[in-house]
Amino acid sequence: MGSIRLEKVSKHFGEHAVIPSIDLEINEGEFVVFVGPSGCGKSTLLRLIAGLEDVTSGRILIDGEDATDKPPAKRGLAMVFQSYALYPHMSVRNNIGFPLKMANVDKAEIDRKVEDAAKILNLTDYLERKPRALSGGQRQRVAIGRAIVRNPECFLFDEPLSNLDAALRVNMRLEITELHQQLDATSIYVTHDQVEAMTMADKIVVLRAGNIEQVGSPLELYHKPANLFVAGFIGSPK
Ligand code: ADP
Ligand code: MG
């Protein structure tokens, strides 16, 4: 479970065709990275898949089923935001359990699921702390915990590491790819960072002005870039 297919998906904001028309196939269990310069439509595409924005035209299929008109909560996906999206006044336990509380899950089950997620993320000793008493990496793990408790088939990450320092980013990249494997999930990871794309992805989708320039493995893109844009983008990491 966790395959996603986009068929001629477009998104217009007023006159502006941010996504003119995209076809894309994401297979079960893949770690797919959307990469491209700022403003090219990465977040918009992710939000369309999540159901946080409506498509202008086209279809989104999840596990072969038309999900185009399904609300976000019915899509079996969980979005991981940057760690600053945590609730500062709530403990780690309540931050992680929040989506379950909203879904009226009973308290004993929330506790059990939060504690399972905390174990996976090495947060067991920090459950009663407030986010401000955590390191940047721990906060990011709490943000991931909030996605894990919902047992999603697919994780959607939108530049989750962009407010962490460089050394921590390297660690968190590894943690996220390990977690992806451990949970047997499908993941879509948005970044403008070529190094993140090259080191994390099974499959990279290179976007430019709302169009797909190329889809391929890091090695394919590196050795056989479809055009100068891809070559320049992949070949010149920061
Ligand atoms: P990225 O994540 O790649 O930086 P975005 O998907 O955020 O790019 O934005 C792509 C384009 O869509 C930008 O030109 C942005 O200004 C525009 N855009 C995004 N969201 C909206 C919106 N809600 N209303 C109008 N324009 C938007
Ligand atoms: Mg963005």
Name its key features:
single chain; 238 residues; alpha/beta; 26% strand; globular; binds adenosine-5'-diphosphate; binds magnesium ion; ATP-binding; ABC-type maltose transporter activity
Total E-strand runs: 10
Identify the bound ligands.
adenosine-5'-diphosphate, magnesium ion
How confident is the prediction overall: mean pLDDT?
A: 94
Main beta sheet: 6 strands, mixed
Distance between the termini: 35 Å
Counting helices, strands and paired strands, the structural category is alpha/beta
Taken as a percent bin, the fraction of beta residues is 25-35%
Cα Rg:
18 Å
Indicate the percent of residues in helices.
Answer: 25-40%
What sequence of helices (H) and strands (E) makes up the elements? EEEHEEEHHHEHEHEEHH
Shape: globular
Strand order of the largest sheet: 6-7-8-3-9-10
